[in-house]
Amino acid sequence: GENFIFKSIFFSLSLPVSSPSPLSPPPPLQVFGGLVWMLVASAELVVFPNPLGWVMFVSVFCFVVTTLWFFIFLCGANQSGIWPSLDVGYHFVAVVFYLSASVILAYVTLLRATIQSLQGTSDGLKIYRLDIAAVVMSYVATLLYFIHAIFSAIRWKRS
Q: Above 60 in pLDDT, residue 139?
């Protein structure tokens, strides 16, 4: 009833509660991860060797795995003893992946700022703004995965 909804809301925000919820993987991770994916995909390719392939891999991989993780928890298939450790492991890997992708994305955005200042086109400015939004969303997704990894580790330690 009401207690389940309250706990689900707090788990979706990656805040700890007294007992595990079937909605443990937080939907905000999917939202911000999906935003990174869409913003990077909407920008044009760069003229130098393109490191955005890693950024796209990370955002798509984490989006798909987190969605699968969400459905596993939603169906209650996570009742065996190995799931808490898998939860911690996956979210720490996601943090490392997203942090590396965020740094790469910020670097590419900085390079595009230099190119934009030399060209001065309105299309270049639009792409640069999309890149800035993607960098912000990428760091937010990194932070959310980190918070979830910490709370998963606490839950794993208690089990």
A: yes
Q: Are 104 and 55 in contact (CB under 8 A)?
A: yes
Encoded tokens for 123: 């299309």
Please tell me which of 74-78, 82-86, 88-92, 130-134 the model is most confident about, judged by mean pLDDT.
88-92
Question: From the CB of residue 158, how many other CB atoms can be counted at a distance below 10 Å?
Answer: 9
pLDDT at position 76 is: 83
- CA dist 147 and 140 (Å) reads 11
Please choose, from the candidates 4, 26, 30, the residue with its C-alpha nearest in 3D space to the C-alpha of residue 15.
26
Q: Which two tokens stand for residue 75?
A: 């169906």
Alpha-carbon gap, residue 85 to 129, rounded angstroms: 39
pLDDT band at 26 (very low <50, low <70, confident <90, very high): low
The phi, psi pair for 22, rounded to 5°, reads -65, -15
Place of tokens 């939202």: 31
> Is residue 15 within a helix (H) or strand (E), and if so which, with residue range?
none
